[in-house]
Design a protein that fits this description.
Helices cover 18% and strands 30% of the residues. The longest helix is centred in the N-terminal third of the chain and has 27 residues.
């Protein structure tokens, strides 16, 4: 009897809600099957990769040098009115074009203030063998005469970027400067037997993008 009722239930036409539920279940099963097929196809795609290497970079150098490296101009037993000169070669020993400026400072070891009396000038366009007082007129005055009581800019300005008076040198290039230091004739007795050491500082920077 139970088997008969089960068979009758199977053969009975489905009402509307049952038919909708079967339709939804079938659609979901179809989507799941498609998703499974899609995953299988993706894993079988052909692919390739090409690496483009050897992109090397090397930075340039800014390197300034001078010859001589010390004591370009010195004098002992100076008297008021004396003038001394000396040649310095400025070299660009780096790989980049540079610009440079020159500042001067002087010490006062004995407290007599000789540095306040000294006057310093720098010229270009004077050949090394002609860096003498009589030949300075043939050169170009770059800066001075300047007192050295406090550090002073002689050539250009060591602030970043192109400044009025800055000098430029291409890589491996050089130029000669003639340095002139004088003790004015008006220097008084208070400065007798006084001493001061003058230091020239050459500050360089790249010109590229600056």
């Amino acid at each position: 009897m139970d088997d008969l009722w089960a068979e009758l239930e199977r053969d009975r036409p489905l009402d509307q809600p049952h038919r909708e539920r079967r339709r939804r279940i079938g659609a979901a099963a179809s989507l799941a099957a498609l998703a499974f097929v899609g995953i299988g196809l993706s894993s079988a795609l052909f692919t390739d990769t090409q690496a483009l290497g050897a992109n090397d970079f090397t930075s340039g150098t800014v390197r300034i040098g001078t010859a001589p490296g010390t004591a370009v101009v010195s004098a002992g037993n100076m008297a008021p009115g004396d003038v001394v000169t000396g040649n310095v070669q400025v070299d660009n020993a780096g790989s980049l074009r540079l610009r440079y400026a020159v500042t001067a400072s002087a010490d006062d070891p004995d407290g007599k203030g000789l540095r306040s009396q000294l006057r310093l000038s720098i010229y270009s366009g004077v050949t090394p063998g002609a860096c003498t007082l009589g030949n300075l007129a043939a050169g170009t005055l770059l800066g001075g005469p300047t007192g050295l009581a406090t550090p002073a800019a002689i050539v250009g300005d060591n602030a970043t970027g192109a400044q009025l008076g800055d000098r430029t040198l291409n890589a491996t290039a050089s130029e000669d400067l003639c340095v002139r230091v004088s003790l004015p004739l008006a220097t008084g007795n208070a400065y007798q037997n006084a001493t001061s050491t003058v230091t020239l500082t050459f500050d360089a920077e790249q010109t590229a993008n600056n």
